[in-house]
Here is the input.
Amino acid sequence: MADIKDKNINDLTDKQARLDLARLAMEITYHDKCYHGNDAPVITDAIYDGLQRRNSAIEEKFPNFIRKNSPSKKIGAAIKTGFGKVSHKKPMLSLANAFNRDDVVDFLSSIRKFLNFNPNDNLEIIAEPKIDGLSASIRYVNRKLHIAATRGDGMIGEDITNNILTISDIPKTLPDDAPDIVEIRGEIYMAREDFLALNKKQTEFGKKIFANPRNAAAGSLRQLDANITASRNLKFFGYALGETSISFANSIGAMRQKFANWGFKLNNPAKICHNIDEIISYYNHIDQIRSDLPFDIDGVVYKVNSINLQNRLGMITKTPRWAKAHKFEAEQAETTLNNIIIQVGRTGAMTPVANLEAINVGGVIVSRASLHNEDEIIRKDIREGDRVIIKRAGDVIPQVVEVVFSKRPDNSKAYIFPKNCPQCGADRIREDGDAIWRCSGDLACPAQAIEKLKHFVSKAAFNMEGLGAKQIEAFLKDGLIKTPADIFKLHDHYNNICNRDGWGKKSTDNLIKSIEDKCDITLDRFIYALGIRHIGQSTAKLLAKNYISIDGFLLKTNEAYNDISSDAYETLINIDQIGATVAKDLLNFLGEEHNKIVINDLLIHLKIAPYIIKELQSPITGKIIVFTGTLQTTSRSEAKAKAEEFGAKVSNSVSKKTDYVVVGKDAGSKAKKAINLGINILSEEDWHNLISIDLPNI
Ligand code: IVH
Here is the structure.
């Protein structure tokens, strides 16, 4: 039987939870002592964080057993890791961006399509200013402020309760009509006036000044001494809802009204809009009054007003389908483009980058800009030595907008894109329809090899401490590692590492130990770590969720690779958000001989944990469903998204393995085939009853 300490928190009994909290308190106290008292930690920060995380997660689930001197309450612990971790009951999403009217038109029409709206159906959109601060979630239990957390990665944030308590905009208690459990989400920000005053004070005391109010708010919140936070006069707007024990509003407008009644400040002016013209005139109005507002905003946010519709629309990876941020025009500046260099990335992409004469663009010093690809350079006729206009939009990499042709030097020459990789000399290649030249050197190209290895050890992949970019470069150069699998054989080079500059027995032991610790990995992280083109964290999760185990993943993708008319191929391209392009990259990668060797080599060293499905059990969990005909109350995409959300797989064709066929209007051969095979047939109404979602009256 699994040790209590390894058990999934959801499977713990009361007694086990109490025992594990006691063990964690003891272990964390011991490690705090090693770290603070002796300045000699015996575990890595990651393992320590893991203990703290487990402790907080058990406390969340079993609040009755929180110990009086729980490690999550201790300052000593906070000093070490910074802040305790809090896992969000409902993920904290971010927003996809729109940059122009067309993007907003697309946003509205995709919502209408998803919801199967008629042209004259009314869709209310609430528009609000987009505050440039930091989002936070504040949880009230029995109307008392219980815990507050930053967004973090959307699933796990940092505990900032002590700091939040110093913000006067945030009520510490809620009135009687508030639910027993409610999480108010919103933005912590610093008013412009307070920002200027803070920087003045910082200058007087010879301290670091902040680039903008957002950075100042972040710096003020991330203070282990909450007295400092208190002195910075941070403010808060409530604009969204996390978990709530009962629903108390059926629209964002009604929710905002409640928030105001409960004592929260709102990010006004907000407006309910009914069409694109109303939306754009709101945008223009806010852009005009932007500098008169007492706080910084970087755009406006549009949200579907109805909560019922929001629930139907759901989300795509980390962003909701029902909301969009419409950013203001980026800030621009003119500077000289000194020269163009070619960067070679993990997948061999040869990206041209402009080295610029450093310039301040909207409070940030810019010295480089991406030029994207050769076509872009030709289209804009960008040359070394040109004067160029640079723009910076939010966190996006700075870009060259255009050349100031009137200032072009007389001797200027058109830029010639190199025919070979500047790092390894291999020929460049370009696939049909791809705008990017790629180096054909693959692992033989040091730039690609380094980037692949760096990706492999990066935080979201194997998260290997003690093995950063610097060490990877040195080990690769000296032939200690070439492929990711070699990392797990570094112990063979023990003496070599020990005797290197800056290394000794202790640091080598630590490195070997931390590599050993990472031999246990989850399937999604493993897939992400392989660094396959187009497969980021969320796609890797989708794949892991579908294939569950490494064996299933390799077996089924191999079947799909060998035969694109196989069930395995069909299943792959039917996974929501995967499609043919990603499938092609994935299968090409896995079918490549040298990748097979690396993967097999890795499997010798690793224990890859299957993906744990967290969805609730539903009547359709694990079932295979086919939709056919025209659905009347919903779109095919909504039906598919719902089915997947409830744990079912959606297929395009009916076979013996199909569990349900949902039949819409004018269904044809698939319905007939289902009847012949004796498969359960559901009408559209049966389908809605099965998953019981609320529908508008039609
Ligand atoms: S709604 C599910 N409303 O913008 C969406 N976000 O770029 C929840 N933000 O992470 C967010 N003003 O920190 C929302 N009026 C507003 C906002 C707002 C600022 C921030 C928020 C979010 C980020 C995404």
Notes: DSSP finds 26 helices and 26 strands in the chain. The first strand starts at residue 85 and ends at 87. The radius of gyration is 28 Å. Residues 93-95, 128, 130-131, 135, 187, 239-240, 267, 301, 320, 323, 325 surround 2-(butylsulfanyl)adenosine (CB under 6 Å).
